[in-house]
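dude i think i finally got it to work??
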Amino acid sequence: MLELSRIHKSFDDQPLLRGVSFAVHRNETVCLLGPSGSGKSTLLQIIAGLESPESGTVSWQGKDLRNTPAHLRDFGLVFQDYALFPHLGVFENVAFGPRMKGWQTDEIKRGVMEVLQLVDLAGFERRAVTDLSGGEQQRVALARALAPRPRLLMFDEPLGALDRTLRDDLILQLRLILTRTRIPSLYVTHDQEEAFRVADRILLLHDGRIVRSGTPREVWESPDSAWAAQFLGLGNILDGRVLKGGRRVQTRDGTFEFKCAHRHRSGDDIRLLLRPTPVVGGSQLVGVAEEIIFQQDKYRVLLSGGLYFDLNAPPKIGDRVRVRVRLECLGVVRSP
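look at this
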């Protein structure tokens, strides 16, 4: 098991990582999700032994890795830019790790052929990597990381250089490969869709801290903060003030009933999430349609005031639109 405890790191006297702690368990794929510049790649480099934290520990099975150099940590790393050796063919690229470990020739050949089969590149062993497509090169990079049988796999925005079609295909393949190999993995990305499709557990990194941790479903259903809901694109974020009794909230778009697990006092300023899909039996919201965008199986309707909702049938521009919504509390901004 990989475990990080209170990792701190700064650049140019500005804090980048502020006490980050988490673990990656056996057979688990954990996705570290956050915006560009949030410190995700730096965290990977610290785990790999390519950077040192200012404080905090990285350990494996309870052993502190502070004095273990990168090449002895036995962690595989897959990059966005593939980092293949252009002067070597597919076989030799994949065989690099096992050779460095001192494997015998027959063992190297058997291991390389096994991982090429796993990543659907059987028959490519004699090909030059410079002749391959972007998706094929990324699969070679994955095979190279898998070949020496690492105890942990790490991915740094591995699909960022690919177009959507290739990315969608590789996400599915990658998920199947990680399930079959049962190697614990840490996957870094800024792409929400990618994260939710590949991860067993998601960690949201914001302002140098893990602000939400949970399964994809848990994070999607309960973002727990306005920042997380906004970053994930879950819907409309509204400011509201709790009215007397604590069961109604006043917003710029009206006054609504709401239920919340938090304990609120009259006058609390809170943040609310209105998901774009209307619900049955929720509070009614009325607005005027200002713009309509076709989105495959539905229509995104922008209302006056900036709220948007996804409807099965499009209204006309200028129509008065009524939707039923459920308000989800994202926490208190200020108490009176």
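Helices lie at 40-48, 90-100, 105-118, 134-146, 164-181, 192-198, 216-221, 226-231.
im so relieved honestly
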